[in-house]
What does this fold into?
Amino acid sequence: MQTATTLDMLRNAQAGLRAGGGSVALVPTMGALHEGHLTLVREARKACDHVIASIFVNPTQFGPNEDLDAYPRQLAEDSAMLEAEGVALLWAPGVEAMYPSGFVTSISVSGVSDNFCGAARPGHFDGVATVVCKLFNQVMPDKAFFGEKDYQQLAVIRAMARDLDLTRPHVQDIIGVPTVREADGLAMSSRNRYLSPEDRANAAALPREMKAAIAAIEAGADVGNALATLERRLVEGGFASVDYAALADAQSLAPLTSLPPAPARLLVAARIGGTRLIDNMAVG
Ligand code: AMP
It folds into this structure.
């Protein structure tokens, strides 16, 4: 596996990779890799001849009081994991390579980014859309792989690719991969390592109570009541607070107050012991 930390290195390594032909997949990450990330890499390997993974803790998607400095960084360990998975090239730029001084551009996707994490984390999705657009332009992959774990992020990236007529990758080649979970149902996340043993045990209430809420909604319960019960049970189960618990249209992410015939999604963000966890599941 080659590693590039500057754009020149990336271009040289890519020229070598593409000289032999074959398709290229991109798997963007912020590192601190776990089985969720590695599942994206495995799906990418199945679909394309070469996989390029990126590791970049993107400062512009963190708010002023968020965990940018504390975010786990373990490049050597991550690099070994990616190499073992058959990744051809690791793109691990420094902040200066990504945002040289004088950088002034931002991509803002309205609609799908308005609610939920977009409302709770102002500017977050502008940072995501901008850095992912840059990664697409730098790597020009045939396909790009993202986790459904960050469901709203996936919707934002698809809307950006569609609206800006991106061709490498085309919107249809932005592949969503189902969320990989721990044995007790908790969605894998780099942030799970912040949890104390007690909070980690209590965190399993999130997927468990989401499933209970979905069962109630699908059985005809009032959506507002089901969501209120979900929030109450999370707090009773050890969560400090719930940023949002919402039912939304699975495509547009428009909030819903009743279960429609079209696919819907339950989206939740909740805080436990200072850590903010997000999860989402299909409804209906
Ligand atoms: P991150 O490093 O958290 O920015 O995540 C990088 C990519 O991995 C994103 O597309 C995430 O949605 C995806 N991802 C993170 N956790 C999981 C998971 N538990 N299952 C599937 N994909 C995931």
Remarks:
- The two ends are 43 Å apart (CA to CA).
- The first helix runs from residue 7 to 19.
- Residues 29-30, 36-37, 39-40, 146-147, 149-150, 177, 179-180, 187-190 surround adenosine monophosphate (CB under 6 Å).
